[in-house]
Structure formats: C-alpha cells, structure tokens
Queue: 2 jobs
Job 1
Amino acid sequence: MIKRLFVVFSVLVVASLLLTACGGAAAQKEIKIAILAPLSGAVPTFGVSTRDGALLAIDEWNAKGGVLGMKIVPVVADSQCAADPAVNAANKVIDQDKVGYIIGEVCSSASIPISEIVNAKNVLQISPTSTNANVTLTADGAVKPYTFRACFIDPFQGTVGAKFALTDLQAKKAFVLYDQGNDYTRGLAEAFEAAFTAGGGEIVGKETYTGQDTDFSAILAKVAEAKPDIVYLPDYYNVVNLVTAQAKEKGITAPFLGGDGWDSADLDRTAADGGYFTNHYSEQDTRPIVQSWLKTYGEKYKDADGKPIVPDALATLAYDAANLLIASIEKAGVDDPSKVKDAMAALKWEGVSGTITFDANHNPIKSAVILQVKDGKVVYVTSVAP
Ligand code: PHE
C-alpha cells in the first residue's frame, strides 16, 4: 500500500514537473504588442506614420532575437482617432488577441477611453503622441498606473506657443479657435490662453466649432473684425487645411499658430503658408541619432515614386514608444504588465525625440520645437526646453 502510494506520488511529481517545463515561461515563444492607430477616419496620415514607426522598432528587436528570447508579434488595429472605435479596438486586442501591451492611440480623445479599459484590465499602455494632461491622470488627479506616454503634455505645449507668440512674434492680441468636443484642441486652447494672458497678452476673441463643421465663414468674419496679431488654431491638419484656406479667401493676414496636430504630409502648405506650430521633433535636428533614424526609416519606407519617406513626429514618437516598451519588458525580465509598468516608470531611454525619463505622472520631460510653414516647406525655427 505504502509502495503504491509512493508510485502514484512519484508519477504526479514527474507529471507536474513536465507540465511546468512545457507550460512555463521557458516555452513561451511569442509576445504580442498591439498598435492602436487611426488608419482610417479624419486623420489617416497619423495612423500610417504611427504604425510604420512602431513596426520598425519591433523589426529591429526581432532581428536581434526579440525580447527575453521571445519573438515580438505586432497586432495592428484601426482606432480612428475617436472614442467608440478606440474602445472597440482596445477590447478586441485585449479580449480576443490576448495582448498585454498597447502602443496608442495618437489622439487624446481616443487614448483617454483606452486608458480606462487598460487600467481596469491590467494591460500596459504607452501613447506615443497623446498630449492632453488627462491621458495619464484620473478625474481626481491620481496617476493611472498602467498608462504612460512618450511625449510632452499640452500645458507645456500651449505655454511654448504663447511665449513664442508674445516674444518672437511680438503679438499682443490673439484670437483662439478650437473644437469644443475634442479633448486635445480644448486643452491646448486653454493652456495657450492662460499663458498668453499671464504674459501680458490679450485674447480678443474665442470661438468654437465642431468636428463636423466645414464652413468657417461666420467665425472667420469675427476674426477679421477683431484684427488680432495672431490666430491660435490648435487642431489636426484636416481642420487646419479648411480654416486656413477659408481665412486666406477672407483676406485675413494675421499668422496662424497651432500645435503638433498640424504635423502631416497632407497639411495644405499653401493655405497654411506663414503659419507656425509647436511640435516634438524636427528632421533638421543635427544630432547623430536623428540623422541615422532618417536613414533607417527612408531605407524601409518609400513613397509612390520610390523616394525615401521622411519620418514625421508621429512615426518618430511611435518608434520611441515601441522601444521604451520593449526595453521595459527586457528590464522587467518577465512578460507581466504589472512588473513591466514598474520597470517603465524607472527607465531612462535615449530616444530619437530626446532622452526620456518619466515624472511621477508618467510624462517625459522633453523640449518642444517650433516650425514654420514657408514656401511649401516646413522649416525649423527654434527649440524650447521645459
Ligand atoms: N497631440 C495630439 C493629441 O493629443 C496628437 C498628435 C501628436 C497629432 C503629434 C499630431 C502629431 O490628440
């Protein structure tokens, strides 16, 4: 009897050892990372750049053997720069594809609802480019443990824009136009207004519109009447194209000033000519890391004529965000988002967009650049440190 029990016991021990060996970490061959980006909808250049930048980083890690001995498998989903499709995409990659890590979204109004899902499901999120302060903070100001970003935030970006308007452009009177229903444009407009008035400037008018509007003549008539020195328009390129074209038709000559949302190959450089915008990076930056990034990206991605594509801020920050995430997985030493988030909080990473360390709110402290749309090109004007 005792002997038989011993045999049964030994069989169980061997079986459980075998199970551990087969089902344990050593046997895991793949790790999935989702990329949630607006591939369709109003701002598709944001999505394509973001996907391509992140995929390039993943390819580079895989070429060196992956991470922790696992091949990295990207799962790309179209989240359309809007809350509902973003929520659907996040639930799909988490529940069906079983990802533990999300790179995305681009747009703050999409990243905020995604952040609620990931923090409920213990999935780690890093947004490459969502700048609204509430992406990483709850309504009562607590930091969301599973949400990080690779970019600066709008209170900084709006202040940089306001100081540039006051000091460099010598503007005293500003008119502010923004989309009331969009977290990004509303937050950036507020930050600009606060900094512009604190610096001695005057807001001579403020008008809102919705994301569906295409005719801006009524509010542009008010702009013409108020005769501002500058018009602040912190929206995405699709809206900027319409508003600046209609402003030129109306004979408005005050320069427009905007934010990172202007950054697109599809920005209408004729309509927006003479305008300025704050952004995360410039390809005219001479740091060697930027120059080698331009080369790598251009070798991999070509336009319809076979010419190398110059990576924009979206592609660059998606590349940085993917590297930050994978480096954090490596540092954590385990495929477990709850451990990887702690590794990320303590990481220091040399990114293309600058050296990144996170503050207590999971925001990197980084410089901004100011660019000008001039004669069909986007040219570097200056950099502003925090
Ligand atoms: N910062 C924008 C947002 O939060 C997104 C964006 C970043 C767009 C960079 C263009 C370039 O919605």
Job 2
Amino acid sequence: MRVPNHIAIILDGNGRWAKAKGMPRGYGHIKGCANLETICDDIKDLGVKYLTVYAFSTENWKRSREEVEGLMKLFRSYLKKCMKSAEKNHMRVKVIGDPSAFAPDIQEKIRQLEEFSKDYDELYFQIALNYGSRDEIVRGVRKLAQDVADGKLVPDAIDESCFENYLDTAGVPDPDLMIRTSGELRLSNFLMWQLAYTEFYFTDVPWPDFHKEELIKAIEKYNERDRRYGGVKEE
Ligand code: IPE
Ligand code: IPE
Ligand code: MG
C-alpha cells in the first residue's frame, strides 16, 4: 500500500456526534481532541510524514460564546499535552492561521510548542487554528506587497513557487490526501491553494469515531486513485 506523504484532515462532526448521544457539543469537542492525540500516533506508525488538521476556522468565532470559550479551554490543555506527543513521536509542530486573535497565554503556548519541537523531523504536524484559506492568502499578499515596496522583490520574480513562500505552509509539500469526516462535502475555507491536486476522501463517520481502521480505509481508497495532474497516463 502506497502511503500518502501528507494527509490533511478536516476534523468535523464533534457537535453532531455529542448531540446524537444527548450530550452538549462541548463533550464532542473533548472526545474529538482526545482522538486527535491517538490519530497522531497512528499517522506516525503508518509512516506518513506530514499531517495537517483543521481545528478552528476564521469563521468558527461565530459560534456561541459558551462553545468558543470551551474550545479555548481545550486548546490550552491540548497545546500543553501536545509537547509530550511531540517528544514521543519526534514530531515537529507548527500552527498555521492567525494566532493574533487568541488570548496572550494561548499565543505563548503555541510559541513554546513550536520552539520545543522545532528540531524533530520524523513527523511534521500542522494545526490550523484561526485558519482560513482566504485569510492566509490575503495575509501572504500583504507581506509580498511589503517586500515589493521595500525593494526586496521585483514583480517579475513573482511566480507560483515564490508566492507559496508567503503562505503559512511555506516549505511544506502539498497534501496528497484530504479527509473530511462527518458527511459535509465542502472545503469550508481549508487550504484552497494547497489542495489544487489533492485527492479527496469524504466519510460520514464523525470525527470522534474516526479511528485507525477508518484512516486505513481512506488510504486504501487513495491507492485506487489515478493521479494525472492534467496529463494523460501512458498505456
Ligand atoms: C468540528 O466539529 C470542530 C470545530 C469546528 C471546532 P463541529 O463543531 O463542526 O461539529 P458539527 O459539524 O457541528 O457536528
Ligand atoms: C470546518 O468545519 C472547520 C473545522 C473543522 C475546524 P465547520 O463545521 O466549521 O464547517 P461548516 O460550517 O460546516 O462549513
Ligand atoms: Mg462542523
């Protein structure tokens, strides 16, 4: 079985999973967060080199104050626990998105985790927090425009690979497989530039129930795909 080099996952369905059990949405987030810890281990065991997860979008602030506060609490404890996971899996962790909207202590935890794990190179784990693809592109364009204004970059030098360096994912290869759990068939503002030639896998399984067997199923489906990148396969 060919293992994708980079898997991206939209962790969706925590709320509905909890509701179906007669529990509050926050309970789903707690279980979803626990599942993320296990999936990191499974991804490492399978030999995947890059994992990116969508954990909080630029649009998720629209949710109730109670839900957002619950999520912030969970991020605080998760970012702390993630240090152990980074150490165990020799995993480098990078947060993508705009952290400036988070409370200063969360921003500090992100900084510490990134610093602590920066020399690990067995798995590269990107966590998308306050991430939106449009926001990422606009922030990148702003930095690029500044470099042009400062005379560090000439417009003629701007091509796709130059532009990629201005994205949060600079230096990370594009995902090979994108998984979205819980039945929705959309991107919800996730990695729109990076997913240009990625294979998509959608499953009805909600994120808290998405375990190693489901991950293997997704990789098996990926193995059936014929990636042509616009070309024609030689007969
Ligand atoms: C994903 O689960 C987690 C976040 C977006 C933070 P949801 O909270 O979107 O769960 P559903 O989709 O409402 O069931
Ligand atoms: C996308 O899920 C964002 C995350 C999983 C973090 P949403 O649940 O926010 O997306 P929509 O609202 O169903 O499109
Ligand atoms: Mg959702």
